[in-house]
Structures are given as structure tokens and as C-alpha cells.
Amino acid sequence: MAELETKKRVFSGIQPSGTFTLGNYVGAVRNWAPLQKEFDCIYSVVNMHAITVRQQPAALRRQTYEAAAMLLAAGINPKQSIVFVQSHVPQHTQLSWVLACNTMFGELSRMTQFKDKSQKHTENVNAGLFTYPVLMAADILLYGAHGVPVGEDQKQHVELARNIAQRFNNAYSDTFIVPEPYIQKIGGRIMSLQNPAAKMSKSDENINGFISMQDDADTIVRKFKRAVTDSEARVYRSKEKAGVSNLMDIYAAMTGKTDAEIEAEFEGKGYGDFKLAVAQSVIDVFAPLQQEHARILADKAELERILEDGAQRAQHLANKMLAKVYKKVGFV
Ligand code: ATP
Ligand code: LTN
Hints:
Layout: H1 2-6, E1 9-14, H2 22-32, E2 40-45, H3 47-50, H4 57-73, E3 82-85, H5 91-100, H6 105-109, H7 112-120, H8 127-141, E4 147-149, H9 155-172, E5 180-182, H10 217-225, H11 242-255, H12 259-265, H13 271-298, H14 300-329
Parallel strand pairs: 1-2, 2-3, 4-5
The site of L-tryptophanamide (LTN) has 14 residues, from β1 and α8.
């Protein structure tokens, strides 16, 4: 126990807004288990964030369990780390209100994810979509997390959480740890296979744009075969070759190979061979994860027990921080 208390803390969250993609895996989830060695880790399935975009209730329910099971399949040990569902810990929304009163309208208006999503869902630009980053700041600050392992697209949100923490600390005395984003050098931003200018996203309408972590081998091969490249038929990294560079990122992330090694391997070969090799490297990594995922989901009672235990442990920590914050702002 003494050892646990001296470890720095890490927090991250993932939305159950669909099935995890290869982008989620490379940019975020696969980095979470290794952090357990060095840090005291807390990982959440952030279902409250997910409803900023309209979700079908039955699908949200199913995806929440699937997401939690995938985190466990990816090696997160619930005995060591805390794994929980965001809506099970009401302190997140309670802190979120206090933080909202310390966040500026102008700051939230500059968030690129808000701009993107409000353009994508013009019929539902709701207040939750706008204040989403405040709830995310609450997730992180509630647990005194030092590190936040995320993909490149979340950097701006973690920076906002830093600003909110500093503003609160200046106004009410030292309370929050100012968190830092942990972003992968390779794979921090995996692009859509159909449009290498856009991020691979689990809510893309074009299912050929993303590889889902539940896609079978045939589907993975088919999607990579269709991936947008260019007409040069030579494998090397370049700004002008966004599609090929993205496939190289994926291959590098799956195999650990360097750019030079990848270029040498496909010297004189066409994109057909390259795409098949990339597909195979993903299949090799996903197959055992899919098996483990199925095994965990088959025992729903055990999964629910793990999530309940996680929620209790999270609530214990969250309560302490919330009490401190309420006291500082002058709530009787
Ligand atoms: P949605 O499509 O519903 O907005 P998303 O696929 O962007 O979802 P999130 O749940 O918002 O996924 O993100 C979970 C984690 O995965 C975050 O840390 C995010 O930065 C990371 N991530 C998401 N997409 C990518 C990507 N294409 N490349 C690298 N990391 C990614
Ligand atoms: N906004 C994140 C999900 C998220 C998160 C968090 C990530 C919600 N709360 C706290 C890290 C820390 C996203 O991936 N869109």
C-alpha cells in the first residue's frame, strides 16, 4: 500500500460511442496497460461524454460493456488499476459545475473538437457538446492525475484542464495537480483509410474509413486493400503521400519497425504487397485481443462486479477531492 501512495497518478477516458478503432488502440488504449508499472492508473468508460452526440440507449449500454471488456482485454488489471464507468461516480458532474464557473466562454469557443462536431451534427449543437471539455477537466482533476495518456486530438482539452486547474489554484489556493498530456510519438494521430486528411474516428459514417477492433480478418484485409494511397507505387514517407505515410505509421506501431526498415522491406514491391502486410500485422495484434474480449464479455456478472468495485474505489478518492473543493469555494 505504501508503494501505491508514492506513485504518481494517471487518468484517461474513452467514450463508448461505438466500437474502438485502430486509432483508439494505437493512440490511446494500448499505452494504458504498460503505464501500470510506473503509475497508479485510473481508466474510465466515459458514457456521460458519449451522450453529447445522440446515442441509441440499447447500443450505448452494449458499447459500455464492450468498451470496459476491451480495456481489460488490452491488459489493464482491475486489481491494480481502477476501471469504472463515468456515470457510476456522480462526483464528476458535481466538480464539473464548479469548474464550469471557472472556465471562460471564449476558451470553450476555441476548442477544435467542438467546432468539428458542431459542424458534423448541425441539428444537435447542444450545451453538453460545448461544455464537454469542462467535464473532461473534472475527470482528470478529481483524481489529482499527473499524466493523461491520449491521442494528439485531445491535447487541446488537456491544456484547457491545465488552465482551469491553474486558475482555480490561483483563486482558491493550491488544490489541483496541473496535469500533462502523454502523447505517443508514432501513432498519436492515425488517419482515416478513406481520407488521410481526417482523423480515423469510430463515428465515421463511412465504415471503410476505420478498422474496428471487432473486425474479422477478411474485413481488415478488404478495408486495407481499399485504403486511399497515390499513383506512385513506392513506399516511403512524405508530406505528399499522406495515405502511404499513415499506413507506415500503422505498420510501425504494430511491428515496431522503423521507416528505413519498412522502406527496405517494400523496395521494388507495389502497394498490393504493402497493404496486405499492414493488414496482416493488424490481424496478428487484434486476434488475441478479440478472443480475450469475447471471453470477458461472456461473464457479464464478473464484469459488472469489476466495474462496481472500480466505481467504489473511484468514489472514495473523488469524495475527498470534492469535499476539499466545496470547502475552498465556501459551500457550507
Ligand atoms: P468519436 O468518433 O466518437 O469522437 P473517437 O474515436 O475520436 O470518438 P474517443 O473516445 O473520443 O474516440 O477517444 C479515445 C481516445 O482515443 C482519445 O485519447 C483519443 O485521443 C484517441 N484517439 C481517437 N482517435 C484517434 C486516432 N485516429 N489516432 C490516435 N488516437 C486517437
Ligand atoms: N475527451 C476524450 C475522452 C475523455 C478523456 C477524459 C480522456 C473524457 N474524459 C479524461 C482523457 C482524460 C476523447 O477521447 N474524446
